[in-house]
Amino acid sequence: MKRMLIVIIFFISLPFLIKATPPVNWLNSSFAYKTKIQTIKKDKVPILLYVYATWCPYCKKMDKKLASPKVQEYLKGFTKIAINIGSKSKSNIVKKIMQQYKITGFPTLVLIYPNGKYKKFYIKVEYSDSKFLKALKRKIGKKAYRMSKKGNKISKLNKKEIAELYNNNGTKPKIIEISDEEGEHTQMRAYKVITEDPQAKFYNNTGDIYFNKGQYRKAKNEYFESLKYNKKNQRSYYNLARIYYVLSRKQKDGFRKLKFLKKAKFYSDVAIGYSGIYLQDTKAIKKQIEKAIKKENKKYKVIK
Fold it and tell me: Rg of the chain over CA atoms, in angstroms?
């Protein structure tokens, strides 16, 4: 009887033991907020701030709503930051956030515009996924959504830019056609410019942490995020080549393995198009990739 009572109590208390955790593609730190708020005018991308507490039951439900595929797709262009204010020891940044945006409860969403203005709102977590998305779109508005799209837009090189590169570098830059996972096509230039953007560096460093932990999917997302801030970052492409090579080795299906290897080779080729400290590392991993591709092609007799 006592055992049965313990089991019942455990299952009743289980929802309260599970902590609220924002979606993986949200930046989850006060440091990220401090960094992003300083560059919001330059980036021209609105920030969506999600204020939560790990123990809050409504925050757990909000996490699920924000993690739904359609909501993630809609918020794709926004800079998404989650701040945990439920801990007893609050940093100065967290205290400042609470005062500045007049946070009195959670979960709370704050939309911050590049001009410094903000809009605080809450959406009922009891809504269905479709109703939640409609309410979110209504709260955010068309103006902020257009700004998010415009801020992250990757523009193609025009003739004037190519001419400038030709004059500055003495040699005509190589134009490489890039196609990312989402099917967005653009043109990238390969020439001698290597200055790692602070934001790109932040995402690459975060990606490296996930990579070392073996969380390759999270690492890949961080590396792709870094390219929004520096499209010619050799380190980002090297990291993507490294990720896809590691993922290829985990594939049991030969054709799927080959698919990952080709992606790895693609990103290694792009990385080699730029100069930088990762050039030798990229060349080394490219050799391994090409060797693995050759082996798979021979094994399955895949015609290129």
Answer: 23
Interior angle at CA 195, CA 192 and CA 197, nearest 5: 140
List the CATH code of the domain at 2-151. Answer: 3.40.30.10
Q: Is the pLDDT of residue 182 over 80?
A: no
Closest among 191, 271, 264 to 227, alpha carbons compared: 271
SS (H, E, C) the chain: CHHHHHHHHHHHHHHHHCCCCCCCCCECCHHHHHHHHHHHHHHCCCEEEEEECCCCHHHHHHHHHHCCHHHHHHCCCCEEEEEECCCCCCCHHHHHHHHHCCCCCCCEEEEECCCCCEEEECCCCCCCHHHHHHHHHHHHHHHHHHHHHHHCCCCCCCHHHHHHHHHHHCCCCEEEEEECCCCCEEEEEECCCCCCCHHHHHHHHHHHHHHHHCCHHHHHHHHHHHCCCCCCCHHHHHHHHHHHHHHHHCCCCHHHHHHHHHHHHHHHHHHHCCCCCCHHHHHHHHHHHHHHHHHHHHHHCCCC
Asked if residue 167 lies in contact with residue 136, where contact means CB atoms within 8 angstroms, the answer is no
* pTM to 2 decimal places: 0.49
pLDDT digits (tens, 9 = 90+) for 94-149: 888 889 999 988 899 999 999 999 999 999 999 999 999 999 999 999 999 988 88
Q: Say if residue 21's pLDDT is above 80.
A: no
Torsion of CA 33, 182, 228, 81, to 10 degrees: 0
CA 109 to CA 144: how far, in whole Å? 14
* Domain extents in the chain: 2-151, 192-300
Rounded to whole angstroms, the Cα distance separating 69 from 132 reads: 12
Architecture of domain 192-300: Alpha Horseshoe (1.25)
Query: What is the identity of the amino acid at 1?
Result: M
